[in-house]
User: Fold these one by one.
Assistant:
Number 1:
Amino acid sequence: MTESGSTYRVTVRDATTGQVRWTGKPFKNLSEGEAPGLLVVPAGGKDHLVTWSEGATGGDALSKAKQMYAVDIYAADGSGDAVAPAHHVEIPASDYGTERVKDAGERLLVPVSDKHQVALDVTTGRTTAYDTDSLKAPGCSSCSFGNEIAALTERDPVVANGDGSFGVPGSWDARRITPAEADPTTGTVWPGSGGHLIARWEQKNLGDHNVWAVLDDRTGQVQASVLCPKPFIATADAPDSALSPNGRYLVSGHLAFDLQTKKGYCFEETDDSKPLTFDSVTDDGTAYGTSLTKGSLTGTKAPVQLTLATGTPKPLPAQEQGPIADFAGVGVFTHDEGNVPYLVVYRHKG
């Protein structure tokens, strides 16, 4: 995404050749002081490119401006040099809105206010409004307050409550699929990649581990799980995840899963080992990420590689770096030189 004066535009390149596939029409940014948001959302068997911004629009000497989200949705496989979005959607925002439009799984989640959220279907541009006060997490009949939309399936919201309940109302309830080692009253869930959810529970009987799992978002079925030492400092942040192009392997922060063999691996910090975080994974089950050496405010990162067939990580030479993303046949890397950012793409070896 590039800036020209008061407008922005997107450019899409072929990952294997670097050639420009298409360039979007210039659009106005509503956000003051920051660039528009940019997301790639897979839905309906296709990738969709989404830009969004939030700010005041309209208004004159007599009428007040209105706070709005402006969302443009492009088909990722377009062509041309001034491509218009397939859908342009404007959604009212609260006057004090500071939340971001989120990829919530299979739809976008637009936070209009504390109690009012909108799901946006990127394939059709249609919106569905949800009042969180009227939603109830499955398995929690007494939970009248504190319910929130944790993720979105193609049709329904995944509703969670602070008491550990979550699921899709009328479809599935997390307490019925909780792994045997987990305390069902401690569940938390986040959107994952490719129709998956990432869930976490504390271990039963006040154990010193957490149970992490990958779930199918439509059924809640556990696809893989792993016991993981509790971190020294707990975080409530949603873990990012990445899926291999063939859909077999998934990495999410310090976790790595083989969804075919249902095995999971955890690389949380322990007394003897540094924490590992993974950014990408290939079709052959090779994950790339970094280790973190604590001892400063930010820590020192070093590149690592994990072979999921064995679950064994290894360090890479310090001058190397892993790909930030992997497509079938190529790896994508970033590189800074003289404060100029570069995107570098290499074909797979052999």
Number 2:
Amino acid sequence: MRHRLGTLGQRAALLAILSVVFLGAFIGAVPANAQSTEVQPSDRSFLVSLRQANSWLVPVSKEAPARTTNAAISNAGRDIFEGHSRLDVDLLKSAEGLGVVLPNDVSSEHQSLITEMAERTGDNHDRAYATIVRQTQGGLLVMAVQTRATTQNTTIRTLAHQTVQMLVRTMTTLENTGKADPSAFELVTAKAQVNAVRVIGQNIEPSDRELLVLLTQHSLWQKPASRESADRAREAKVRKVAGQLAAEHMQLTAAVTEAARQIGVDLPSEPTTEQKSWATAISASSGEELDSMYANLSRAADGSLIMQVAQARATTRNVAARTAAQTALTLLLKHMLLLEGTGLVKANSLLMTDIPAIAQPKPASSPAPQPDDSSTSVGFLTGIAVLVVAAAGTLWLVRAVGHHGEHRR
């Protein structure tokens, strides 16, 4: 009897697992630009962190022009005040629509920052303001980029995209004042770094070299793949996006090459083996399959790389590497938006951890995938069918167990 129950339990578990696996695959096939109302913990964390940052960056920046005689700091303060104020309005509106409750009060730690900055004047204020605000924005940038790359909620994706654009602009403004201390750009608590101010230097870190190598390899596979897709893609919108990406990778290559020249970094001449397999998969496809393959592989690769680029943009002390990272961040953000705009990018391509299933080779007799609404409808109906079968199977197993038990009695 125990063996019988164990066997039946294994079969029931297998049916349940198959149902879950199927539904997981179905969810991954949902277009990334479809509205998701669910707010993940990481999305909620981003919203709360942004609100907390705005709660002290807005008042401190509002007072900055009155506490400095430095025109650059005054202008930076106004820009940051306006940027974070507008962002906070959009944040509150988005949170309300999503049913997310955000903190209204300034935390004790942030209030102490406001108080401390109010006590500073002159150059002491300017250096502290530029350093601590720039360091805080760097941490926000990394979080916003990660959210932008991975969230399946379109409202939050739009807010994160807007946040990244604003932060890139205002971070540059602060850096251009010459008052921000690059030694405090590490993603740690800002307050501990306020008093240590040094001159910007050309420090070379292994991460700077790695950044330039990664960007070069990315262009080495995506530029030719985009050119090919611009010629062979079935849909006009895919051909247009692919052509634009191919052209703008020339700009990225130029920026990376110049940074490598200044730093003294030898750049690779070929993409990685994995990247070559992506390009091969695109070349081996045609029609609708090519369109979907190109859009999903490119978006997945961009989403993975942009998080590393954001980390470098936020933390590097090297001016040349920072310039290249900024160019890359701007272009990758734009490319992600363009690829998502094709309507072909699926939710399982929002973050690449390995070669997406869409890039796996298929037998020649396999039909090309249909990345349109009809395939999603079929997938949904099939998912329901699987659930029905699983439920029926489970019910049958339960009855079999009961019948067997009665027979034993």
Number 3:
Amino acid sequence: MSTPRNSTLSDVWLVYRREIDARLRSKGYFIGMLFMVIAVFGLVAGLYYANAPKTHTVAVCGAPAQSFGPAPPGISLSACTDEAAGRDRVADKDADAAVTVSGSRVSVLSRSDSPPQAQASAVALAKAWATQRAYDRQRIDTAALQRDVAAAGPALVTVGGGGPNGTEIGAAISMVVVLFMQIIGQGSLVAQGVVEEKSTRVVEVLLATLTPLRLMMGKVAGIGTAAVLQIVVLVAAVVGARSMFGDRTEGLPSTAALISAALWFLLTFTLFAYLFAAAGSLVSRPEDLQSVLMPVMVLALAPVGVAAAAAGDLNAGWVGIVQYVPPFSGLLMPLQASVGNVSLLQQLAAAALMAGATGGCVWLAARIYSNSILKIGSAVRWRHALAA
């Protein structure tokens, strides 16, 4: 007499609740989440202070400060009496550089470790003083000269849309790496859970009332939810840190890009998680797991390599094609979205293709899982599991 089975939804829900309870009762899960939040705030704080405007001091000696013209951006002028005073200030690091006037001669003083911006600004101030002195000696009407120069130009004209800067690319790559680590880490947990149930023969009890597909779906959904919770907390931490530190974090992805990344993580994780579950069903001992995980790991690594190559030129023609191809779209699309290179419609088109590929992976994984999960002993080969 066969055991009556529940509906698909109730069976999957039972396994899902079991998996989610196991994760939420783990201290390691919350400790890992806390470390991620601390790391995010540390990185954003570092970006904030790295982008802080820096002001360098240039001493102007032997002539009135106004005779050197306006101070360049990021430069503070400090008056002193003569060349000896300027030399002392630079040597004692009270000033980053000095411009000294002695009679009709102007000199620039700097240390070997003086900031390049301070050195260049001191040279520009010295040239401005020398030019003004030459104008005065030649009795040139400098006010009229400046009006003529201003009328002639130059005019700044922006051509083309440009592209993302290095900070934006770096932040986007960091986000992609985090997504990849989560996919690999949580996918490995799925495989380990399958092996543990198989090695302890718990799976035989579970399959007395569940179908293999329902068991696998509940496990993937439970671990996936725990992973998504971590990503949501990570996104919230980035948004909170950015609002706390303000304008100097403009290199970070926008909130819309972060939400896009979280949704793409969910799609990509679902695709790979079922493959990880299928790989775990092939072995009966935890120590044999790494050998069967290798093909899945290589497949998961491929999008990372492609994303790293694409970061050099996100507008390249091949990138525009590959960003729609699963599983590469799982990392390329959030990378493109983080720098504003793709529209919502393009993401939806790529997501539809990814959903189709995920459906194929679920069917493939279900076949392998069903044919292998109850085979105890030596590892089942991939092709044997498919052919059974």
Number 4:
Amino acid sequence: MNQLLLELANKSLTYRKMLNLYWITIVLTILLEFLIHRLETFSAPYTFLYILVMQTLVLSAITGVVEILFRFRKIHNDDLLILTGIIYASSIIYMNPTIGIVPAIYIFPILTSVLSFNKNRILLAYCLVILSFTVLYLLSPTLRESMLTNEIIGILFLYVGVTVIALTITSSGIELLNNLRHTTQTKQELLVKTIIMDKLSKMDALTDLYNHKTFHEYLEKLIEQNERNHLPLQVAILDIDNFKHINDTYGHWVGDIILQRVALIIKETVTSNDFVARYGGEEFAVIFADKSMDQSYLIAEQIRQKLSLTLHPELDSKAATISIGLQNYATGDGKEALFRGADAALYIAKRSGKNKTVVQTPVPQLTSRS
């Protein structure tokens, strides 16, 4: 049901289907009229064929104009469809005035108007049908002679009945579409809220980095990859030097600014394969994936050097430095050993003068710099 309503709500798709129906109607109308008149005896077959050809050309021309407007000008007007339906029905009735039931075909444009889900258009279609039937009845002596009074009353009641049904269907359809839109909107809002809540549960609000919990979840997955595929893996712990002094001297609001700037520099320096998190307080953690130890060390040093050269107006134009501990993961060690190694390297960096990068395992051809 929902899929059907969505298709009806898609104006372009509905318009395309109605145009296809009109083209099919032309073919069927011509075939049926030809067969009907073949069964009848009439004195001027060539006159009939001429009228049939002209009818085909007129209907094709009208439908062709609507097709061009839709395909090349992207115009899909419901009133134009209704008017086209009126012309179709009038043409068929004019060609077959002696068939008593044929005026019932005027219900076609009324039913077409239902697809607009607009009550005013349905009433417009009804008025056009009554007007067109009246004009045909006055202009066609054959139609007047072939229709009895009770048939005229029956046809008029048919138009009214179909219009009432169309209005009822439209009211129900509008209500269903509104409910569907409301349900869809509610689902979308819930999805957005779920995404936001999921992000909030994983992110640190101040720095917009991943939080402590997410860091460990991601690290566990990467360790599993290392155990299966020997994916290179290193962890760095970064700690802002003398951060307590910054908070005590300049205020916690300045400390928050420094945390945000440090986070930004780290994010801008690491690669897309790396994972950055605020581990807690003034500590940050970076997981380097698919890199050699030398490459990870160089990135850590770039972060440290950038921060040592960044002067902060809030700190009287002084820099806020960081110390970094870096540890390579050896298959089979496990998460705790990896993290303890990085933490031990950070402790050495702090104890040996700060503002330096220390690795737990010596890096060939590279030395720590202050």
